[in-house]
Write a structure and sequence with these properties.
358 residues, Aminopeptidase, 5-stranded parallel sheet, binds zinc ion, 7-stranded mixed sheet, alpha/beta, 2 domains, 34% helix, Rossmann fold
């Protein structure tokens, strides 16, 4: 017997009592909440396929406190079989591992006709689902309980990656973009502080470094405070980014990277990261970046993944002081030289080298 890996729920008169568009304040059906939470604890994923307007239906799921349990939702007016197939494709699950719950016999018949491998249940079967053998995976590990969160994180990452595509390289090249990366001066610092404060969307650590914090590090031999400026054929963008890097012989530690949201679509974050990777490679050092997920900086996480940072373990991590807050992730890369950016002209200071004597 194949275990069910994902249950796809209809909404009207199945998950909730009544029809949202007619009855408004619908409430969950009996047994539904218990069933959803128990399936979730068993590592069985859940999704929604409903004929409704997406926005009010999803909002109602949120109000009912159950939206978080669903890893995928197809809410619209197309055939249910297409919705169920899209969900299976998205999760990369075989149709034999998908179940579908719907109160309407015609909808179950439509799914069964096009997708005979999918198990279809009427709404009256909800109270019995948990006792069926196919909903009782032989082992429930900690991993399977975390499965939902990890699918949801992947879905968000995919969505961000799609939105990260941005303008075409051809268009970017037509802008004659230039980027300069220099050691920050005291004059740069107030603008830098503003960047770490105001561009929370692009602040990879969510940590605020004050003007005084950064000023104190300007003369510290192990720290590099870097200012990023950009311009294009229409004129200067001014200071658009700041980075704080602690350099050591074996490992470089990127403690702060923040860029202005105005330059996100120019790939500014990834350009700075690729440059740092090349500099670290030239110095023979590994590169570790602090990343603390916040509600607004996911696009920065995409830049890290995009440039090759991972959570892989490396002995060099042991050389860093512990982050201490329990939320900051250490993303690691073993650097290799990167090609120069092909959509902008980069001029940058050389790091990790003794400055030429004057
Ligand atoms: Zn390392």
């Amino acid at each position: 017997m194949t275990t069910v890996k994902c249950v796809v729920w209809d909404l009207d008169n199945t998950l909730w009592k009544g029809v949202l568009l007619e009855d408004g304040d619908v409430v969950l059906n009996e047994h539904v909440l218990d069933t959803i939470t128990a399936l979730d604890a068993r590592g069985v994923l859940q999704a929604v396929a409903s004929k409704n307007d997406h926005e009010p239906a999803w909002q109602r799921l949120e109000e009912l406190g159950v939206a978080e349990y669903f890893v995928a939702a197809r809410i619209g007016w197309g055939p249910k079989s297409a919705s169920v197939r899209a969900i299976a494709d998205e999760l990369e699950f075989a149709l034999t591992t998908i179940a579908f719950v719907d109160d309407q016999p015609a909808e179950r018949a439509e799914v069964a006709f096009h997708l005979p491998q999918v198990r279809c249940h009427p709404a009256e079967a909800i109270p019995e689902l948990l006792s069926l053998p196919e909903y009782n995976p032989p082992t429930v590990t900690v991993d399977s309980r975390r499965r939902r969160q990890s699918y949801q994180a992947n879905a968000r990452r995919r969505a961000e990656q799609e939105s990260f595509d941005g303008p075409s390289e051809e268009f970017l090249r037509s802008l004659d973009l230039v980027m300069e990366i220099n050691r920050a001066t005291t004059d740069d610092l107030s603008r830098m502080e503003e960047l770490t404060l105001r561009t929370s969307q692009m602040n990879a650590t969510g940590v605020h470094y004050s003007d005084a914090d950064l000023r104190a590090l300007l003369d510290d031999a192990r720290h590099e405070v870097l200012a990023v400026t950009m311009g294009d054929r229409f004129g200067p963008h001014g200071a658009v980014g700041v980075a704080l890097l602690e350099t050591g012989p074996a490992v470089w530690h990127l403690k702060l990277l923040a860029t202005s949201c105005r330059v996100v679509s120019f790939g500014a974050g990834a350009t700075v990261l690729n440059w740092l990777i090349s500099e670290a490679a030239a110095a023979g050092a590994h590169l570790v970046a602090d990343f603390r997920p916040t509600a607004r900086n996911r696009i920065m996480e995409v830049a890290y993944r995009f440039t090759g940072f991972t959570e892989e373990y490396c002995a060099c991590l042991g050389e860093l002081r512990r982050a201490g807050d329990g939320e900051t992730q250490r993303l690691h890369i073993t650097p290799a030289p990167r090609p120069a950016p092909d959509t902008l002209r980069l001029t940058a200071v050389r790091l990790g080298r003794v400055p030429d004597a004057v």
